[in-house]
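We emphasize that the prediction below concerns an isolated chain of 287 residues; any contacts that depend on oligomerization or on bound cofactors are therefore not represented. The input was used exactly as deposited, without trimming of termini.
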Amino acid sequence: MTSPGEKLEQQEAARQQSRAAWNAVAPGWYAQREELWKASHLISEWMIRRLDPQPGDTVLELAAGLADTGLMAARLVGEAGRVIVTDFAPEMLAGARRRAEEMGVENAEFRVLDAERMDLETDSVDGVLCRWAYMLTTDPAAAFAETRRVLRPGGRLAFSVWASRERNPALSLVGRVLASLGHIAPPEPEAPGAFAMADPGRIRELVVGAGFAEPEIEEVPFRWPFADQEAYWRYLNETSASASPVLRSLHTTAQEAVREQVHEAARPFHSGEGYDFPAVCVNVVTH
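Result of the prediction step, given as a token string:
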């Protein structure tokens, strides 16, 4: 039986490991920013539409990555409003800052911030965005409770998580191969990870448990193409915070074996020289 103290130590170790992994892949996310946005913009557009930020609002983006979603909101809140772009990985935040400069966004501020322990005042923001991160948190209940705390009465939360691994092969194939070859342990169902909040029932439990209203939940499908096999392999190596550290730790022979099996597993999704994967997110809005 794990004691409360041991559990806290384990959670903190997991946070530190996750932060290091995201710092390491931040350059890859920035290098592939255009391809990533082209594939996934529908997800962010849904979130912005449902959040409906108004001129003068203060919008918080949690675990922002390159902040493409939050920077969309920055246009809508205007000069009188602001977007607080946050991430717990300083290198990801640096990429978001560069992205804002490229886009000419001037009403965004950038803070290193852990979604589970926010250094923000209670009732201080009008809206919260979070794309692809709540399911990765060590303690999602704490992250939702903190979100509820900083959100003003009547303010909205719009977020996105991944549907099941079976419906997102671009993300899940490499994990299945790594597990089958003994390089990683099979994932525990509710452990932090890309698919940890695929069940709408779990989403409702976490959201309502944190004091939010009954959430509106909608699946948003999109296509995720890769120009060729090399582009897909580069994506896995450069941007996957879960797979990249494992792949980089393998010697060349083992890495080539993984690569061959990944491409074999991806055969059903071949399109021309590359791939065209289906993908599904579960998007949520509540207040």
